[in-house]
């Protein structure tokens, strides 16, 4: 438990570090160093899906929503000790993903290179020391390649200000490349601004703004239903129903915060780190509490057992670990990156969350099996019926989750160059819809009502029998026993009842 508390103490520090990152559709470069790739030195300037500019129906020669990529004060800096010679050009290479084969080349079918080699220069297809490229067959005047060179004593070289209009929908990639091995420790500074017709949201994120708006409305609808029932039957509300109320409230806050996060990002081009972190945190708390509630229900909490007994600390420990792993994953995914490409760091952070989810699922179904057997043995048919419905819904959700996970892996393995960026928003949206659907099922099954007490745990011995009249008629009355026989028979059930009660208590403790 002490380790868990230390982890929660560490979390605000992690959040503070992320808060210092100002990410947006404004891609900033703060002293980024060039990395050797083959025979070239490269800095990745960004990748975003951009929709083409919207034409004005009233004036075909103008647009009402421009898409562009703007270069603002992009500066290359070299150390003072290296500022004693004129360099070859440092080039910005901007291309749409379908034109990726137009960048680079090879001589006589040899190894493909980005920078022009001596052999290629002799063939006259490029200038030695510059990036190899050829015009796109699909889009005139693309890719865009331009650059700047250092003069003999210059420590700084700056690209001139320019704005490139995007007239074709696609995934655009920007790289800064130089081919001069003498330019050691070269860095890039400045920023580029990427804009879609409707705002600054990257193309992959743009549909999510409307999605979260609809999800917010959906949570309002289910909230109205739940809170109206809660207000009507507040005297009969169970502890489990209070937990469900908390999940609905967290869901409403999460969806609203995500919508405002994307709306602010779309409007200003700067992502509001504070709103993003609150949305991530509320979402992580909601997912953690939801899993704990499902686990508690599966264990029969409030139905066949009044408390979790010795399992409480284990449930809290599993929930706390899941919260920390999910929080770090979501912070890295939503606060630390903007480009429309799948981050490699995410793959390492997904693994712990996936393992903890699998452990939750295993524990839930193991507990459900034990609870169903206990309800059937005690002939609590009303509770047994609701638990069977809950089990079926949960089984369907797990099967669908596994199927969608397989599809997600297939989708990402096939979409190496992010060409399907316009459909990528469906993947995170699906998980939200599935979670909401499961919440709706739970709300229907455990909605507050005047009969809520039927699902609650009771110490009454009569709870061991089903009170449905149709079942009671199947029990035939036995002949009246003699006095001696009745005395012995009465003694045995009392002993058996006490034994069963003690057995249940022992089972609760051992579980």
From TrEMBL:
The positions making up the signal sequence are 1-24
State what protein this is by name. Answer: GOST seven transmembrane domain-containing protein
Give the subcellular location: Membrane
Q: Which UniProt keywords apply?
A: Membrane, Signal, Transmembrane, Transmembrane helix
- Membrane-crossing residues? 211-228, 240-260, 275-296, 308-325, 345-365, 386-405, 425-447
Q: Does the keyword DNA-binding apply?
A: no
UniProt xrefs under Pfam families? GOST_TM (PF06814)
Q: What is its main location?
A: membrane
Q: Does the keyword Transmembrane helix apply?
A: yes
Show the segment(s) annotated as Disordered: 454-511
User: What are the GOST seven transmembrane domain coordinates in residue numbering?
Assistant: 207-452
Q: Which organism is it from?
A: Hibiscus sabdariffa
Topological relation to the membrane, as annotated = Multi-pass membrane protein
